[in-house]
Amino acid sequence: MEITFLGAARTVTGSKFLLRDGEQRVLVDCGLFQGLKKLRERNWRSLPVKPAEIDAVVLTHAHIDHSGYLPALVRDGFRGPIYCTPPSQDLVPILLTDSGRLQEEDAAYANRKGFSKHRPALPLYTEDDAKRVAKRLEAVGYHTDQEVGSWTLRFEPAGHILGAASLTITSGGTRFLFSGDLGRDDAPLIPPPASPPRADWVVMEGTYGNRDHPDADLEENLGEIARRTLGRGGVLMVPAFALGRSQAILHAVYQLIDGGRLPEVPVYLNSPMAIDVTKLYVRHEAYHRLTVEECHQSFGRVRLVRSVDESKALNRRHGPFIVVAGAGMLSGGRILHHLRAFGDDHRNTILLTGFQAPGTRGAALLRGDDSLRIHGRQVPIRCEVAKLDGLSAHADRSGLLEWLGAMEGRPRGICLVHGEEPALESLAAAVTKSGIETRIPDYRETIELAS
Prior knowledge:
Elements: E1 2-5, E2 17-21, E3 24-28, H1 37-40, E4 56-58, H2 64-67, H3 70-75, E5 82-84, H4 86-113, H5 127-131, E6 137-139, E7 145-148, E8 151-157, E9 165-171, E10 174-178, E11 201-205, H6 218-231, E12 235-239, H7 245-258, E13 267-270, H8 272-283, H9 292-299, E14 303-304, H10 308-314, E15 321-325, H11 335-342, E16 349-352, H12 361-367, E17 371-374, E18 377-380, E19 384-387, H13 397-405, E20 413-417, H14 421-433, E21 437-439, E22 446-448
Parallel strand pairs: 3-4, 4-5, 5-6, 10-11, 11-20, 12-15, 12-16, 13-14, 13-15, 16-19, 20-21
Antiparallel strand pairs: 1-2, 1-22, 2-3, 7-8, 8-9, 9-10, 17-18
Helix pairs in contact: 4-8, 6-7, 7-9, 8-9
């Protein structure tokens, strides 16, 4: 068996691992590179295998950095099944359709502004390409064996987000384990990862391999910021990603309201994609911590904002109220329109809910910038800028080592992926101390794993 690391090698994005054994080829995850330009340019490089020659794709979960290249793969000739968990089968079309639309919008904008070296600029794939992926998705539940040629696949709970899985592939008595993205034991909505099964070789994520999460009480910290803002008659603007973070924020808000720790104020969810994702929590009750009744309590009372006109009307309202909208790093989306409308008023608050990548508007606010360029003009920011910790969906260093330590027996070797180099090197040093051979693969490196 050989594995080629086509993504998530010394970086946190573009997860894509090609397994070959004789004539059999399976792609584990099929993610899009995001972030820095030098990474995004990899999305345009041809794979070292023709898509038509890949027998199957197996997805650990729905996030775009694990699924976002699928539309290009299918368009270019892949005709096999895409195995995933039932929640991922529902989530992937929602996320990919949005991704395809953004690809087209970015290309159209580049053509209007003339800043692309390509004439014309083309999208990596289109919304129609994304829609074709749905017919190839095949759901496989946790703890269920799925035969693919001479191999057996099996998903186990990984925590992280709705439907996320670790993957075991058994070939000729040898087990290969892919951790996927591992979640936290104390996540508010998603149960913790299952203990890993025995495996000979492990491909393991290391996003937080060099640090632990700070101790933070989500509800206490959110409640303090919200009470302060609402008490001023202000608007609490919460930029949040559509999958996972929006639902965690809404659940915490209604826990605070029902517990009498926040006043009963209007709460708006202004993200069509987040609205579609939130509905899936009722359908897939077995994959998260909430009962159907608790889902209705946390998500059934929020005021849904779908249309552009409804979103514009919200900007004419006066506080106090709370609005959750995308995108989480202020890179685009409807939250920017709210920031234009409410950012110049000291009574209001923009609440950043996680890591803000360098170069984003969120990072600029945390740096102390008092204006942002939004939709072509400088917008003064006089509202309060606050940050909420404790919402990362990834296991930290301690959680990663605890997960690995819970494995029955000791693997022959580990490849660390999905992390920046400092995080992977720190985690590798800790794992190596336990006597396990540990490698940090390079982009497009191929490693032979002995049976």
